[in-house]
TrEMBL record:
Residue stretches making up the DUF2059 domain: 95-146
Organism: Pontibaca salina
Name of the protein this chain belongs to: DUF2059 domain-containing protein
InterPro entries: DUF2059 (IPR018637)
Top-level lineage group: Bacteria
């Protein structure tokens, strides 16, 4: 599909948690939380650590580098301060506080205890360690290529492991949910960039949404391939039995509730930070133009 010169091609954001569209209203609830709940914040923080979600939050910062490209621009358009501003907006401490604010209100004790109990096991901690490495991998392109090679071997052999990996990916969120969330992130970023005067947006929000929807089939396939290759690489050192145990754990109702919420939190933080980045980029552009 051809695009207007004012609009970038749809750029896939790399995220591990595949899930639901962001829930911005959770921030409203979090703002009204009573100080009496503050003692529970430490339990939520411990939960983030034991499940590895704290590292997943840190990895959001890696997506900042894709921001100019999403707008069809180059880093140089924003001057020498680009890296500094991106680092400030995607500050990991800020993102952790945002996550804690939401989860302190929205994460129920039952699902929290259930997920923490699984990830506290020997298998759970080994899985978290592998996932943390995958989150922060510097050469994600090479890792995904290796994952695709692993998948090709599994397909050629007709290995049962392929079905287990697909089962795991489905348990943590469908490709449709991921696609909707990523579309929402890009939509919010483009609209914020347009409002800030960074790009000339010739389309309304409804027209832009229709444009993104027109690319859904291609993007859904890309997401599915990427998620499968990523899982193949991330869990390459685990046995089929261990991964089957993990899939069964992920399919439990309490774990499903946890992942649905964590997905929503991660996508909301991404969208929020990209909107903030658009405003800061506008200031950088003005300084550079001067």
């Amino acid at each position: 599909m051809q695009h207007s010169k004012h609009l970038p091609a749809y750029t896939r954001l790399s995220v591990r948690f595949i899930g639901v569209v962001a829930l911005a209203w959770l921030f409203v609830l979090a703002a009204a939380v009573s100080p009496l709940r503050a003692a529970e914040r430490s339990r939520v923080e411990a939960f983030l650590n034991i499940t590895g979600f704290d590292v997943a939050l840190d990895s959001i910062a890696l997506s900042a580098g894709s921001a100019p490209g999403m707008l069809g621009l180059d880093d140089s358009a924003f001057g020498a301060d680009w890296s500094r501003i991106a680092g400030q907006v995607f500050d990991t401490d800020v993102m952790h506080e945002m996550a804690l604010d939401i989860l302190e209100v929205a994460l129920e004790e039952g699902p929290l205890n259930h997920a923490a109990a699984f990830y506290a096991t020997d298998l759970g901690q080994r899985l978290v360690a592998a996932e943390n490495i995958a989150h922060m991998a510097e050469d994600s392109v090479a890792n995904e290529a290796e994952g695709r090679r692993i998948i090709s071997d599994l397909v050629r052999k007709g290995a049962a492991r392929l079905g287990i990996l697909r089962r795991m990916n489905l348990a943590v969120g469908s490709s449709d949910s991921s696609l909707r969330a990523l579309q929402e992130i890009q939509l919010r970023f483009l609209l914020a960039a347009s409002a800030a005067g960074i790009i000339d947006m010739p389309l309304s929000a409804a027209e832009l949404r229709d444009l993104l929807r027109g690319q859904e089939r291609e993007m859904r396939r890309a997401l599915q391939r990427s998620a499968l290759a990523g899982a193949a690489w991330t869990y390459r050192q685990f046995s089929d039995g261990e991964l089957r145990t993990y899939a069964e754990a992920l399919e439990q109702p309490d774990m499903q509730m946890v992942y649905e919420l964590l997905n929503a939190v991660q996508f909301e933080i991404m969208a929020n930070r990209f909107e903030e980045l658009a405003m800061r980029m506008a200031g950088l552009q003005e300084e550079h133009d001067i």
